[in-house]
What does this fold into?
Amino acid sequence: MRFDSYHPAINLFFFAAVIAGTVLFNHPVFLGLSFLCSFAYAAKLRGRRAAGFGLALAPCILLFALFYAGYTHFGVTVLAKNFIGNNLTLESFVYGMVLGTMAASVLLWLSCMNAIFTGDKVVYLFGRVSPRLSLFLSLCLRMVPRLGERARETGAAQRGIGRGLNQGGLFRRIGNFFRMASILVTWTIENRMEAAASMRCRGVTLRGRSALSIYRFDYRDRSLVIAFSGLAAVLLTGFFFDQMRILYNPEIIFNRITPASYIFYLAYGIFCLLPLALQMCGEWRWKRRARQTADEMGA
Amino acid sequence: MAHFTIENLTFAYPEAGKNALQDVSLQIQEGEYLVLIGKSGSGKSTLLRHLKTALTPHGVRSGRVLFSGKPLEEAGLREQSAKIGYVMQDPDSQIVTDKVWHELAFGLESLGCDQRTMRLRVAEMASYFGIQDWFHRDVAELSGGQKQLLNLASIMAMQPEVLILDEPTSQLDPIAAADFLNTVRKINLELGTTVILSEHRLEEVFPAADRVAVLEEGRLMALDTPRGIGRRLRAEGSDMVAALPAPMRIFYGAEGGGECPLTVREGRSWLSREMEGRPVCRETPPAPLEEIPAADAAVVLKEVWFRYEKDAPDVLRGVNLQVPRGSLFAVVGGNGAGKSTMLKAICHICRPYRGKVLLEGRKVEKYRPDELFQGMLAMLPQDPKTLFVKKTVREELLEMLPGRGGEEREERVLKIAAELQVADLLAQHPYDLSGGEQQRAALAKVLLLEPKILLLDEPTKGIDSFYKKTLAEILAGLKRKGVTILLVSHDIEFCAQYADAVAMFFDGGVVTANTPGRFFAENSFYTTAANRMSRHLFPYAVTADDVIRRVCESRGEGKERIRRGERQ
It folds into this structure.
């Protein structure tokens, strides 16, 4: 039901498109849409903590805008003068808001991406391009957490003989830290040698490596691609009509808002919300089905 | 047809004084199950590594290895990768990718198989090995046994003709090890894959093997059926007899008649026949573990509760334990039961959120860290490599004695090295030692702290039966000096033979503690092979020696004879 049940290429396309849109479209309406959608999606995916994070970002945007206006002084609409006589302008303040919102939205989209686009999807997509590169990534994904695990184990063993990171005076502790680093380095080298032997055994050096794909591109994926493409076409049109970009320097200048503009807003909103909508729709249908089954059982 | 033919293979590692392999000739038939045994350092791994070019070590070599009738080197890398599967010791370092499915496909990807073939083979393997439930998991989440099974499956996915396994179960607990070896047996029986396996846990592999090869200092000492090997080792008075499965050891120790039993079942019926018509004296049960006054306990745990994280489940759930001063106390129990965590709680590495840990009558948190680890307490971790910092064993030991006079330090190091039989290894790099040697070097290091209480976490892991004996002697020596030893282990046989008291750890607590005789006699599954084999006649016989003694006594044989039998 979640967006990650779709093909990884679609996941990648969506997040690439939506982050590109957030960075490229500096029209306040589009930025606002992006921020709200990313906030809603992050809250849905990652729960209360993500929602708290999103809410905490809002005052940060305002603070950033104040800070920005205090340091850059372009623009013609002077609101006030600060104590050294520089202009505080509406334009620079608004532009600060725009930059802040942009950064916050990108952060939120990245946190969604983190939940959906896991390491094995990266490995898979790279595998389509270069099996070797994808293997390398996969090796790293195994090695890095393992090193952490080993560091914990070593730490406990060293504490068991009174040489732990939190035992002894300051100098002893520094010494113990280097001991541990040294143990880990030796272990890593040794371990990599064994892993290399195991890979050689299974013919890693042979030419013509392929990559197993556990994903299939099915009809559901295709229909989603069509929907995304349609929306993207609408948005591109808008982009060529200069609906997404406005000027802030020296004066806020934007194209007139026509009824057509609302179409673009709507298209962008749908685009950003589609994964969330699909997930909620799926959940709703699931619940309805469960209820129906229960009713039938009852009857 | 011979699958592998080894002709007069002699090999020496660079700069080594002696040959690692000396004139080894051996033919391995197609579909055969061959077991390679020998003490550690006898050249088992070196020989196995010669059966695959990608792993063959550098050094001076003469003689040759034929694979299916032609020299091994002539089979290219592609052919060797697919046809010769090799499983190594350490389950963890062989796994190279992060997902189970990717690891399964690894070999096939190297061979450049297309999607259809790969999908089918991977599906097949996952179903055959019963790993479809963890197909999508991260490999980091698997247990040691599951990891080794995954290694085996990922090699079998390439459909090899030969499967070579180099001590594959040495890092596994007994249950996982038996499981793994059963799978290997199944592959051999159902697919006809040739299996060449080196092992020191012989209870499971002896009944399965077609032939057994014995290596001693690089020479092929014997090559015969399992029973034939038993007979020969016995006739030559070899100390390898100590490594044989318990039923065989008892059979030879008691000089039984008839065919030598290999399994517990065969052992039981042999023993029944042997004892027929002879009086079985009613045994008085051995003394139970005495309650000791708290003042005589070196370590006391009182209702200790611990969990790793706030919302995680409890690992220790009210552990109560009393370890008498100067005793060797063993705690046995399944994997992940929390035994190691208990040791960490005693060391104050894990801090219990409820309950008390008393060392020599004083709360552990009242000790200053310096006090605690200087002359009071030390723990030997499961993996000795986590202790090694330096380039040689000598430096390793010296570094434990900071700031003392040069002469005196040197002297103490030599003394402890002699005690732990690592004196010849002082110049070597700790990583170059065998498992048993590493264990002893690490123990030497820990003992330089002069602990009164020594905690050992799985000290027999990856050690063969000879090293176990040495370890037992070392521990006995420490005990004489008044050191209290608390060890946690899966190794029932070791605990039965050498511990003063055994406790069972289950579900986050110590369920029962007793003397080995009582403890194992009360269990019927979780007990030694010798006990399972003889419990219908001698309910309190726990070790092979116990059974031998009772059989000899029932024949009315003298003390001299019994002692001879026990020496076996």
In short: The first helix of chain A runs from residue 8 to 24. The first strand of chain A starts at residue 78 and ends at 81. The two ends of chain A are 29 Å apart (CA to CA). Chain A has two domains: 3-117+217-298, 122-201.
